[in-house]
Amino acid sequence: MELLVVENERLKQELKACKTSLLQEAPPPACTTTDSFAAELCSLRILRYQSRSPAPHLSLSSPTLSISLSLSSLSVQYVTEIVEVESTESQQAVAEAQAKSVALQEQLSLQRQLLRELETQLHDSQRTSTQLRAQILVYEGEMERAQGQLEAEMQNLEEEKNRVIEEAFIRAESEMKAVHENLAGVRMNLLTLQPALRTLTCDYNCLKRQVQDFPFMLEKAITEAKQEICQVIGEVSSANQELLRKYKREMNLRKKCHNELVRIKGNIRVFCRVRPVCRGEHDSAENMVSFDPDDDALLYLSNKVKLMTFELDKVFHPQATQEEVFQEVQSLVTSCIDGFNVCIFAYGQTGSGKTYTMEGVAKDPGINQRALRLLFSEVTEKAPDWDFKITVSMVEIYNETLRNLLGDIQGEKLDIKMNPDGSGQLYVPGLTEFTVQSPEDINRVFELGHMNRATACTNLNEHSSRSHALLIITVAGVNSSTGHRTQGKLNLVDLAGSERIAKSGAEGSRLREAQCINKSLSALGDVINALRSRHSHVPFRNSRLTYLLSDSLSGDSKTLMMVQVSPLVSNMSESVCSLKFAQRVRTIELGNATRRQWENSSTSSSPTHDSVEVTHTHTHAPWRE
Ligand SMILES: Nc1ncnc2c1ncn2[C@@H]1O[C@H](COP(=O)(O)OP(=O)(O)OP(=O)(O)O)[C@@H](O)[C@H]1O
């Protein structure tokens, strides 16, 4: 590219140097003076600058001179001829050159601006480069640090690896040792097992032979066994026949023996219960009553002078619970489901615990509630094979008068009559029979009975001491498949107090009460006596109590007398009296086994069977003496 540079500083300097050397070294042309030559030189203007030629050179011109300068070796060619200065072409060329120069100047200014921008950019780039270099230094620092850490980490890992390898090696060594030891043990075992293996192999072969032979042996054995079994079955069946025959004979014998036993022993049991000393009782009971540790049928009573021994069927000590007492009587209770008539009497002086044993207290009920609940649960269990109906009546006998306790009319008096149906059975017209269908009914019965008894008298405690309370439970059942019927009756009787009021000189109503109580208790003793002695006549009619219970005291019926005893010394004589009564009941000598009239009375309609009428006044009970 060819570029005309006019104002270039370097060129200016070179030109200045050229002019100076031209002035000093070149001789002015002949036609001019030194001064005008100098002036001529000063007016020289750069015409052209060639920078790309092999030797850069400068073309200068003035009106009179045309100079070409080689910039490396300055050589001057003198213009020897004066050229036409202001020719049209030159002026035109000058004009063109000036126009060109203007264009170039503009271009130059543009280039300069460009240059400035480029310089600015260069500055920016240099600044950026400086920043980048600083950043590179930071990065290099960080890289060095990271590399340091990496190296340390690698060092650690290397150490860890070595440690783990070492540990693994040690472990492997010890395991290897153990394996070696095991191996040695196994080798030893192997050595000892070899003979065993030989024996086993031998056994195996032997067994194998046996197994092969087994089916034949089995078949043979089965055939033999079959023959033997057939033979044994034959023998057993004939033995069975014989046994069955013997069993039937034994059963008949047993039944006969049982009947004989019942006939001899009677169905009357006597228990005794000694109540504890109650809170607030200051009387000393020490050593008055004692028990035999080896025989629960013995009871000892001692006063200052003598020791009395009583033998009964069972004695309950003061700590005996209601449950324990009930355990002993529950078989009697349930026997009425099988059609037996049962009587349980509580006998004893006032305050000896009769009501406690029969009724109990709310938290700990006595025989009455427990019996009814047991019967209810037993008959419920027997359903649907059996259809049972349990009915309950409650009566009291006060001054020989029978009162309905479950009726709507309070204190309603009842009478005992012969059933007009001709069955010979007694019945009580108007007696309320409450059918128990749920356990709740049981509670209702007792509540109602208790309420009626309490409202009919002014002092329940006194009243209950002087009247007999009877709970009569009838259990009637029908077997749904056979149609077989049973009917049993359970009479639970809380007797009036047995103390001898008459002896203490009671008068008026108290005397009458005492007479009535003595009469009925005496009649009860007489009936029991007659029953056990197999008397031909049993005096049921001598009291309301015995008359009402006649069907439950006769036949196969069972009777339990629970004699209650107070442990207090002050009650000693009454306790002795009660126990003597109990023992007498138990040890009545058996008379001739004659057929009892009442046995007929229950099946006959004749009212004359029980013919003894009460004709004398009972101020005292000789039977109890
Ligand atoms: N086994 C016993 N355990 C705890 N307390 C008893 C026991 N027997 C009786 N008692 C208590 O003794 C007291 C008298 O008992 P209970 O009323 O039953 O005598 P009772 O012979 O029925 O008298 P009554 O002839 O006047 O009716 C009552 O307070 C009763 O709670």
From TrEMBL:
It comes from the Eukaryota. It is found in: Cytoplasm, Cytoskeleton. InterPro entries: Kinesin-like_fam, Kinesin_motor_CS, Kinesin_motor_dom, Kinesin_motor_dom_sf, P-loop_NTPase. GO terms for molecular function: ATP binding; microtubule binding; microtubule motor activity. Residues 595-625 are annotated as: Disordered. GO terms for cellular component: adherens junction; centrosome; cytoplasmic vesicle membrane; kinesin complex; microtubule. Residues 101-167 form a coiled coil. Residues 610-625 have a biased composition (Basic and acidic residues). Residues 267-588 form the Kinesin motor domain. GO terms for biological process: microtubule-based movement. Its main location: cytoplasm. Pfam families: Kinesin. Keywords: ATP-binding, Coiled coil, Cytoplasm, Cytoskeleton, Microtubule, Motor protein, Nucleotide-binding. PANTHER family: KINESIN-LIKE PROTEIN KIFC3, KINESIN-LIKE PROTEIN KLP-3. Belongs to the TRAFAC class myosin-kinesin ATPase superfamily. Kinesin family. This is Kinesin-like protein. The gene is LOC110526163.
